[in-house]
Amino acid sequence: MRILIADDHPVVRHGLKQILASDPTLHVVGEAKDGNEALALARKLEWDVAIIDYSMPGRGGLELLKEIKRERPGRPVLVLSMYPEEAHATRVLKAGGAGYLCKDTASKELADAVRKVASGGRYVSHSLAERIALELAPDGQKPLHQELSDREYRVMWLLASGKQIKQVAREMFLSASTVSTYRSRILKKLQVSSNADLVRYAIKHQLIE
Length: 209
What we know:
- The structure is a single chain.
- The protein is α/β, with parallel strands linked by helices.
- The chain folds into two domains: 2-136, Response regulator (Rossmann fold); 144-204, Winged helix-like DNA-binding domain superfamily/Winged helix DNA-binding domain (Arc Repressor Mutant, subunit A, Orthogonal Bundle), CATH 1.10.10.
- The chain is 53% helix and 12% strand.
- The protein contains ten helices and five strands, in the order βαβαβαβαβαααααα.
- It has helices spanning 10-21, 35-44, 61-71, 85-94, 106-118, 126-136, 150-160, 165-172, 176-190, 195-204; strands at residues 2-6, 27-32, 49-53, 77-81, 99-102.
- A five-stranded parallel β-sheet has the order 2-1-3-4-5, with helices on both faces.
- The longest helix is centred in the C-terminal third of the chain and has 15 residues, at 176-190.
- The chain is globular, with a radius of gyration of 17 Å.
- The model has no long low-confidence stretch (mean pLDDT 88).
């Protein structure tokens, strides 16, 4: 099985390759250090499963995921993240991801997750499956942040994580004025009035720790 991996940290890429090397049926055919390189490799190489980091410079996990799915709609993409699934997993699955895996459990679960998504399945924890079921229930109340676009969500999360507008702009390859515009929309949609309110909202909904 041919695996494509993308993570901006060389140590993490090395660790992923070591984990996958323990299974002789899994072979890494390409590795990328950012979203743009990952998309280029996804177009160029033949692969069966892609493993991408949620938070990378330039194209973030969701944006990259959607681009790859547009280019290779039949190929499963597994999203790996250092952040708990409560924060991002539902959005990843709705965007077409085949699964969401936390890095702290990757050493035990990665090979199984790859095989499951390669066979057409979805890889999620039991707690996440229950959370999704509740959200899909007819009387389920969706939190306000689910109304954000993927790019608004990423800006919101970066701001709530303590980054300044200029830092967000650099990480997302946007202008500071564009990020400020996104911030205004986000505050309105979440019904808050300041960055401090935004942080409190994110903590309340377990989007950040």
